[in-house]
Each structure stands twice: as structure tokens, then as C-alpha cells.
């Protein structure tokens, strides 16, 4: 720990850096955000079966399957979860929900579903346009609320934001 040179003095090895508490802030860890989002999706898909057909959970299950399909890869997974976390208005892969679209269309009798629809999907769903990442995020958060996810996890993980609701940013 001697830097040598004219006028230099040896510094003790235990010297540290002092940082003002006002300058310290929590950093946003993008990997943690991805893991939180994956945890939410997997939590939903691990729930016991619903008493009645729950289309919200079915749509989330299909989304999860697409994330881990043979055509997917780690880079694609990261990209998809990032779009979901940010609430992107971009539509999710068009062929993704085709079978569910037909079911929804027949059960609703119109393109936009009402909030009181037994399928349980938000009224903002336009079956012809598909579902956006923002809409998927809303569905995920609704299912988490309905299942008591935030009541359960907020008591377990005080130091991690598992129980933090992820609301898409408004554009």
C-alpha cells in the first residue's frame, strides 16, 4: 500500500471510502425485475385448478408455454419479459392465442368483452387485434390480486419487492 513518489506517505491497508447517506440510493436491478416477473407468472401457473373455467389463467398459462417453447431461447425470454414488465403496447405474437380468441369471441358475441363477462378478461381486449404486453400485465396483476398473492408474499419477503405490484407505465 505504498504508492511511492516524492512526498507520498504509506496509507494504512484499512483505509476506506466515506460516502454520504444522501448520495446512496437503491439501484434498479434489471435481472431482479425479470425474475420477479417470472416468479409471478410461474406462481399463477402453479395455483390449484379453479372451480370454474378461468380464461385469465388459461391465457397466462399459454403465455408461459410460449416463453419456454422449443422455438424460444434465453434472449427471446429476456426480451419478452422486458416488454411485459414495461407494459409495452406492442401486441404479443399474433398466432399465440388463436384458439382462445375463438372461444372468447363465441362466449362474448362481440369484439370487446365487458368487465362482467364470465371469461373474466378486461373490456380493453380487442380479439381481432390480439393482446398487448400491457394487457397481459393487467391480467397477471388481476389474477395475483384474486389469488391473494400480495397478502401472502408481502409478509414473507420484506427485503425483496416480490409483493410489489407491477403496473405498466402510462404512455
UniProtKB/TrEMBL annotation:
It comes from the Eukaryota. This is Serine/threonine-protein kinase Nek10-like. It comes from Neophocaena asiaeorientalis asiaeorientalis (Yangtze finless porpoise). The gene is LOC112406236.
Amino acid at each position: 500500500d505504498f504508492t511511492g513518489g516524492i512526498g507520498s506517505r504509506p496509507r494504512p491497508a484499512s483505509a476506506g471510502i466515506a460516502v454520504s447517506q444522501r448520495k446512496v440510493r437503491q439501484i434498479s436491478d434489471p435481472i431482479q425485475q425479470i425474475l420477479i416477473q417470472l416468479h409471478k407468472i410461474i406462481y399463477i401457473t402453479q395455483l390449484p385448478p379453479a372451480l370454474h373455467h378461468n380464461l385469465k389463467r388459461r391465457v397466462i398459462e399459454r403465455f408461459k408455454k410460449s416463453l419456454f417453447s422449443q422455438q424460444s431461447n434465453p434472449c427471446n425470454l429476456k426480451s419478452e419479459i422486458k416488454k411485459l414488465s414495461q407494459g409495452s403496447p406492442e401486441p404479443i405474437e399474433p398466432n399465440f392465442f388463436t384458439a382462445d380468441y375463438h372461444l372468447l369471441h363465441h362466449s362474448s358475441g362481440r369484439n370487446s368483452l365487458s368487465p362482467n363477462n364470465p371469461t373474466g378478461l378486461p373490456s380493453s381486449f380487442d380479439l381481432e387485434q390480439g393482446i398487448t404486453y400491457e394487457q397481459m400485465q393487467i391480467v397477471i396483476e388481476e389474477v395475483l390480486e384474486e389469488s391473494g398473492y400480495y397478502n401472502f408474499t408481502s409478509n414473507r419477503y420484506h427485503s425483496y419487492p416480490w409483493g410489489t405490484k407491477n403496473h405498466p407505465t402510462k404512455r
